[in-house]
Amino acid sequence: MVQENGVPVGMKHYPAEFKADAVALYWSRPGATIKSVAADLGVKTETLRNWIRAGEGRCSGSHSAPATAATSGGDGVQAELAVARKRIRELEEERDILRKAARYFATETRW
Questions:
Q1: pTM over 0.70
Q2: What are phi and psi of 31, to 5 degrees?
C-alpha cells in the first residue's frame, strides 16, 4: 500500500478522543462483543480491537458485571443504591459516547 506521511493511504483518521470514547464504551458494556460495539460505532472490528489492546494497561477492572449488594438491612439498600447510581453513570457515559460518534460521523458524511 502506498504511504503518505508515514500513514497508509485509504486509512481513516479518528481523533484520539473518539478512540478513547470507543474503548470506554466497550468496557462499560458488560457482555458486549468487540464486533457489536464496532458495528454500533461504524468502525472495523480489528480497528476497535487494536484500540482496546493499546488501552488495556490503562483500563481498571475487567469486562464484567458490577458487584452485588450486601444483604444486611439498611446497608443492603445503600449498597444497592450505590450500584444503581454507578450503572446510571455508565449508561449516561455510553449515551454521551454514542452522541459524539453520531456527530462525528454526521460531519464525515457532509460534502
A1: no
A2: 85, -10
